[in-house]
Amino acid sequence: MNDHQALVRKITIKGMDKEFAVAAENYVDKEQQPNNLLNLQIYYLFSKNGKNDIGEAPRILDSDLVEFSRLQIEKFIQSKGYLKAKVTDSIVVKKKKANLIFTTAEGPMYRMRKIDDSIADPKVRALYRGNRGKFSHIQPGGRFDTDSLAFDRDEFFQIMKRNGYFDFYRQYINFEYDTTFNSSVVDVRTVIDNPFDKNGHPIYRINNTLIRIAESNGRISGKADTIQVDSQFRFVDYSHRFKPKTVTNYVFQKKGDLFDIDKQTLTTSRLSELNVFRNVPSPTYTKTADSTNRLNSQIDIVPLKQMSDRVEGEFLLSAGKYGYNVGNTFTDRNLFKDAAILQLKFNASILYDNGRAGGSTGGVENQDFKIGANLIYPTIVSPFNFAQPGKYGVPHTTFSTNYSLFFQQGLVERTSFINSITYDFAETGRKLHSITPISIEFSKGVIDPTARQELLNENFFSYIYLIGRTVFTTGSQYSFQYNGNELTTYDNFIYFKGSIDVGGNWLSGVTSILNTPRDTLHQRTLFGYAFAQYAKEETDFRVYRSLGGERQFVFRFDAGVGVPYGNSTQLIFEKNFYAGGANDMRGWLPRTLGPGQFNRSTAYGPPGTADKPSTGDVLRARLKYLDQFGEIKIVSNAEFRYKIANDFFGAVLRGALFVDAGNVWRIHKESDNPGGQFSFNNLGQSAAIDIGTGLRFDVGFFVFRLDAALKFKDPEFSGADQWVLINHFNELFHSGTFKNNYFTNYGDSYNFMQLNFGIGLPF
Predict the structure, then answer these.
(1) What's the alpha-carbon Rg for the chain, to the nearest Å?
(2) Which pLDDT score is estimated for 357?
(3) Do the Cβ atoms of 348 and 326 come closer than 8 Å?
(4) What whole-number distance in Å separates Cα of residue 641 and Cα of residue 442?
(5) According to DSSP H, which parts of 432-472 are helical?
């Protein structure tokens, strides 16, 4: 910045009604609005030779732009009913920093006295008068506001377009207003003219529809599949990949219907939601050559490539532990030529430990391998007629089969096989339902023989039962989601998702009727296997608040409870809740928090030495990532999100500040998890808290996330010792008495900071 230049640092609006003063600042030219200090520093740090590559270039005072801004503010306040308002500007510069001051002399506020209309076409007049009360923002006695007039124009234009008036334009609607009175009042008249040389506005109906599908590269060449479907639809497919009904089911403008712009938009939206087309523009219309006021329409579609493959990953790093989560999804978008989607998914998670307690030299701590297939139909495949293709979304039926393998070094290998049918459909644009009427699960655990004997010696029968049993069960699930369509916006809204999972009731009835045998634990069996019976509920409630621009505050409350009953005394291993990880308690690794005030360093008895580990050391190492679970989960998160830079090496850079609080708990007092029982009286003591900050790199088609979280309150300790970050801040990046004592008792390092790398937002 040169010596004769000044940096705009402040805008002051004086003399203006508070209702409009904040909005008036937006009419100041963008180049004269104060910089975000952080973005400005990023610009100075990364930009070279004055080239605005990253961050936000300094806003230098420009008198011409100040004058332009003054005129814009004056027009704005006049549009709000202060027709005689005048705005003046002044500039105060101190130490090369400029304060722009805009002073308003508002004058009298004009109100509307009389409102009438002059509409030549009687049908249009009837339509206007019949709907005006539903949409109009201009009323006698109200403030004269040209924005309200523009709103009325747009609203009635849409009404005309919904009622067959294909040839109607906004320019036909005008407003006349008389301000010749001395009492600051305005008479307003809505004028709607007829087309030139016509006695009225014509109404159009839909005639024939041509559907033309190009190749995935957009070309239209070669021989096409051509089918005359019925009296309305002609189907021409150059890709040779689709059946006509794939498109015709979602064309909502039928032959003989009035032209309706809402049905046109609905057609485009639903065809796009099939996720098999790359480009679905609005239909084009051609008037028929006769005088019948009919419209032939044409829909040109470019399909996506039929095959695609997507790779996702996440990396975890904490002290001597590190790991990764890698996933791959292969998609065939048009199976059987009717937009059925086949997804083949693979996911592998591995966690390494450089030096485990119990005498291990380190290596793989645990592995989680999953593979599955989903076949998704864009309709409800059911003998019952519900949720047909329509106004609020594309319904889906998903046939799913999944296999998973979990391996914990030196302890257990668990496999599970799940098959299900799920229906997803929208009740409204905001309300989504998901119903899984049947889910069949078979899971089996094989415990390492040495580990099994050690657990028996210490009377840890519940862990043998939890991770080592074979279970066959059937279940049903239902979930409801509200406002999921708002998650990518910066509006003010609430989000809710609730789910219910119930299992084993049908098998309970069948085995009771058949009087099947019971096992040694007195559980009913079917085909020689005990079945699980349980009920589980989880609720995800969020509040999103816009703080202006791309700044947002989000609060989330996530709670759940699972209850075994009937044929079960414990939940299935996979149905329990766990805390920690990149999406809830970010200061802890997955499966390393709770339950409650359970303390792993003391729960298994006194420690041994590096040369001679105790039995407790061995059990502590074997049960790591498996003994910290609960039937109850309560987690809350508060996060402030803001934009840092529009262009950070090709990505939009955003930041976040967050606080996470919560834990998991056992329903009953369990000897295996001392201190882990849920109690309202002890909720504050047993809850964990972490604080942190993060960066989000938005490259358009995905968001790459880096979060750094610090343990603030750790419930495994007692009393004031829980506030670890306050009491031991000096050991944040260095070892000291606290960390040394923890390592002696726990056989592992205490890490205040947890880094999480991931794809997508945490919630």
Answers:
(1) 33
(2) 43
(3) yes
(4) 42
(5) 449-457, 461-468
Contact between residue 43 and residue 54 where contact means Cβ atoms under 8 Å apart: yes
Instruction: Tell me the pLDDT tens digit for each residue of 139-172.
Output: 999 999 998 999 999 999 999 999 999 999 999 9
CA 690 to CA 584: how far, in whole Å? 10
Decide: 345 and 373 in contact? Cβ < 8 Å: yes
Residue 195, token pair as written in the block: 């087309």
In tens, the pLDDT along 520-536 reads 888 999 888 889 999 99
- Strand pairing partners for 481? 432, 497
CA 203 to chain centre: 42
- Tell me: the pLDDT tens digits for 279-322? 888 899 999 999 899 999 999 999 999 898 988 877 766 556 67
Q: Among candidates 644, 643, 681, 652, which has minimal Cα distance to 665?
A: 681
Residue with tokens 């592995």: 367
485-528: pLDDT as tens digits? 899 899 999 999 999 999 999 999 999 999 999 988 889 998 88
In sequence order, the 6+-apart residues with CB closer than 8 A to the CB of 673 are: 595, 596, 598, 603, 627, 666
Written as one letter, the residue type at 179 is T
Evaluate whether 320 touches 341 at the Cβ level (below 8 Å).
no
Rounded-to-integer distance, Cα 156 and Cα 170, Å: 9
CA 25 to chain CA centroid, nearest Å: 32
Kindly state the DSSP code that residue 575 receives in the 8-state scheme.
G
Mean pLDDT of all residues belonging to the chain? 90
CA 260 vs CA 167, 263, 485, 520, 673: distances in Å? 12, 5, 24, 68, 64
Asked whether the beta carbons of 479 and 422 are under 8 A apart, the reply is no
Q: What is the pLDDT of residue 50?
A: 55
Question: Could you tell me the two tokens for 429?
Answer: 């644009």
pTM beyond 0.85: no
- Between CA 325 and CA 562 the distance in angstroms is 27
Tokens matching residue 275: 């996720």
pLDDT at 628 over 70: yes
The widest CA-to-CA distance across the chain, in whole angstroms, is 103
